[in-house]
């Protein structure tokens, strides 16, 4: 997995400042893809298939496979494509290995900071840089009033502006700051390493959150949906925190969600 992450990062890094032909997926004017996304996808799959030819794949940029394997590699070859297309260096490569429905191995690589976040189930989460490796721990913030949060906005944000901004408005009055960085896999890793205290987003895809989920959990964090139910990478709601502010965030989100539950499923 480490080899696949770094190979994809080496492909991504040198092309960010070059003109990229931008395509649009699913007839959307904001869901972008570049040739680098697709090239990185092929590179990652080829690297993993050489070692594990019988495993299945679920990736953002290619059709899923169905070999009947208990193992499934869930891959976002370039998380943060909109950032990348605009030469904004906040992107990541995300790989999670699912075994019988449970994520057991995860890695997210930031090619511009040369930071490799990784975790193995029940064995902790770690950050590897040029200076060495260290174990990850979530932050110690105990209240929203001392917290920095991250969020993101789905591709249907133009149709649901008021819904998504209602969450921002409420939290903005209770915290030290909100950031919108634009790469969900890295957002989750930044919760895990304590750079932020919490993160929420609607409608992530499995490849956005598969790796980050395990990394947050192994760093001592907590994940759920917006009502406090167990988190699923196949669900529509992602709330990840250091655990200490989770209940406080949920109290706010439950109040909001009572008025939006029907709207979001339209």
The protein's oligomeric status is: single chain
Strand order, main sheet: write it out. Answer: 3-4-5-6-7-8-9
Distance between the termini: 38 Å
The outline comes out as: globular
Helical content, roughly? Answer: 25-40%
Number of E-state strands: 14
Low-confidence regions: 261-266
Backbone structural class: alpha+beta
| SSE ordering | HEEHEEHEEEEEEHEHEHEEHH
Annotation field: number of helices: 8
Strand % is: 25-35%
CA-atom Rg in angstroms = 18 Å
Largest sheet: 7 strands, mixed
Structure characterization notes:
There is one protein chain. With 266 residues, the protein is of the alpha+beta class. The chain has eight helices and 14 strands. Strand 8 and strand 9 form a beta hairpin. The longest helix is centred in the first third of the chain and has 17 residues. The protein is globular.
């Amino acid at each position: 997995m480490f080899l696949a992450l770094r190979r994809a990062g080496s492909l991504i890094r040198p092309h960010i400042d070059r003109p990229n032909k931008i395509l649009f997926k699913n007839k959307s004017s904001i869901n972008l893809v570049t040739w680098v996304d697709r090239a990185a996808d092929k590179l990652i799959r080829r690297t993993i298939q050489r070692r594990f030819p019988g495993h299945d794949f679920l990736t953002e940029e290619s059709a899923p496979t169905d070999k009947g394997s208990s193992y499934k590699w869930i891959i976002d070859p370039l998380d943060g494509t909109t950032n990348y297309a605009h030469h904004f260096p906040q992107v990541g490569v995300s790989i999670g290995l699912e075994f019988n429905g449970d994520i057991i191995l995860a890695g997210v690589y930031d090619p511009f900071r040369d930071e490799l976040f990784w975790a193995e189930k029940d064995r902790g989460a770690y950050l590897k840089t040029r200076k060495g490796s260290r174990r990850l721990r979530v932050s110690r913030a105990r209240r929203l009033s001392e917290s920095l949060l991250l969020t993101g906005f789905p591709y249907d944000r133009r149709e649901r502006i008021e819904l998504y901004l209602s969450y921002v408005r409420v939290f903005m009055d209770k915290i030290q700051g909100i950031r919108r960085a634009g790469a969900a896999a890295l957002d989750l890793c930044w919760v895990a390493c304590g750079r932020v205290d919490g993160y929420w987003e609607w409608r992530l895809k499995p490849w956005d959150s598969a790796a980050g989920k395990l990394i947050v959990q192994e760093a001592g964090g907590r994940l759920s949906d917006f009502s406090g139910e167990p988190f699923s990478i196949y669900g529509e709601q992602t709330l990840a925190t250091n655990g200490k502010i989770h209940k406080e965030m949920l109290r706010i989100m439950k109040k909001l969600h009572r008025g939006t539950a029907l709207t979001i499923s339209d």
